[in-house]
Amino acid sequence: MMIIMHPGAPKEQIDAVIAEIEKQNLSSHPIFGVEQTIIGAVGDGHYVPKEIFEALPGVMEVQRISKPYKLASRQFHEHDSIFQLDGFHIGGTEIPIIAGPCSVESREQILEIAHAVKEAGANALRGGVFKPRTSPYSFQGLGEEGLEYMAEAREQTGLPIVTEVMAVSQIKMMEKYVDVFQLGARNMQNFNLLRALGETRIPVLFKRGMSATVEEMLMASEYILSGGNTRVILCERGIRTFETSTRNTTDINAIPVLKELTHLPVIIDPSHSTGDSKYVSNIAKAGVAAGADGVIVEVHQDPAHAVSDGKQSLTPEAFAKMVKQVKAVAEAVDRRLVSQHVTA
Ligand code: PEP
Ligand code: MN
């Protein structure tokens, strides 16, 4: 439920509400506005009568959140959440572009591609060092060595780094390198991993599970939010359908649907959603036209020889062209690309 305090309610009254929430075995999630504080109380609170809170001094109103997800809902947080990342915001007017290879393959490869994507307009660098491969015999990633190369790429380009975490045991080691944890589609319902990411204070780029509904996606994100990590960026990366002409089916509808249901930023991954570089730029544009707050895309200097996802990887030249077109679409829908990196 949401406990809405009277404008200007003093700290002692807010603290008393928080103490009562904890006494009821719920967790408290205050949002301190300029004038008014709203305190979310979540947990198995169905049977806690709201009168308990209504009776406390300074409480203006208590509302139950009707959706099964609470902290992710627009009922809890009406306005779009805007997160400050290194060098840009996500969730506001500006649309950041995250680009880089599927996998970090070598020091030379990641440094070269990092400079290339930056030059073409990227705001953050992606690259996997722990790879969730369908076959255990496929390349599994460089692990910590790859993170060292990513960190060097960040140092040289200033681009913050986004990389996938696959296991709870990797979090601590990875924290010293990453700017944004990527939660992969295959782990969207790995509840232990979600809870552990909720304990960190590093933003999470949260990929939709390949057969997850929008509601399941929001419920899963709640595991992270309820741990106190508020910076979750949702990503539509395609779902599995009966259609086999593309690797996945981009659920374009999910973008406006999510934007209606949640205040969290929503981005599009046209690389995994199509699986084919021929379609990536069009679907990136479609995502932005549909209201996406950002784009994450795979770019490789030599897609034909990439160790993973080469077929869907753009060359730096194709990426630069995509950025120009996404910029035009963004402007058509009253958005813009992040200003400092845009090449006109
Ligand atoms: C990736 O980003 O390389 C990846 C494995 O993505 P997903 O989890 O969406 O398949
Ligand atoms: Mn990939």
Describe this structure in words.
By secondary structure, this protein is α/β, with parallel strands linked by helices. It folds into two domains: 2-63, Phospho-2-dehydro-3-deoxyheptonate aldolase, domain 1 (Alpha-Beta Plaits, 2-Layer Sandwich), CATH 3.30.70.1140; 83-337, Aldolase class I (TIM Barrel, Alpha-Beta Barrel). Helices cover 33% and strands 18% of the residues. The protein is built from eleven helices and 16 strands. The strands form four sheets. Strands 14-13-12-11-10-9-8-15 form an eight-stranded parallel β-sheet. A four-stranded antiparallel β-sheet has the order 2-3-1-4. Strand 9, helix 4 and strand 10 (161-165) form a beta-alpha-beta unit. The chain is elongated. The relative contact order is 0.13. The mean pLDDT is 96. Phosphoenolpyruvate binds at residues 102, 128, 132, 184-186, 207, 237, 272.
What distinguishing features does this structure have?
single chain, 344 residues, alpha/beta, Alpha-Beta Plaits, TIM Barrel, 2 domains, 8-stranded parallel sheet, 4-stranded antiparallel sheet, 11 helices, binds phosphoenolpyruvate, binds manganese (II) ion
Q: Quick summary of this structure?
A:
By secondary structure, this protein is α/β, with parallel strands linked by helices. The chain contains eleven helices and 16 strands. The protein binds phosphoenolpyruvate (PEP) and manganese (II) ion (MN).
Give the secondary structure arrangement, pairings included.
Blueprint lengths: L1 E4 L5 H13 L3 E6 L4 E6 L8 H4 L4 E5 L19 E3 L2 E3 L3 E2 L1 E4 L6 H14 L3 E3 L17 H14 L3 E5 L5 H5 L4 E4 L7 H9 L4 E4 L6 H12 L6 E5 L17 H8 L4 E3 L1 H5 L2 H13 L5 E4 L17 H17 L3 E2 L7
Parallel strand pairs: 7-16, 8-9, 8-15, 9-10, 10-11, 11-12, 12-13, 13-14
Antiparallel strand pairs: 1-3, 1-4, 2-3, 5-6
Helix pairs in contact: 3-4, 3-11, 6-7, 10-11
Bound molecules: phosphoenolpyruvate (PEP) and manganese (II) ion.
The site of manganese (II) ion has 5 residues, from loops.
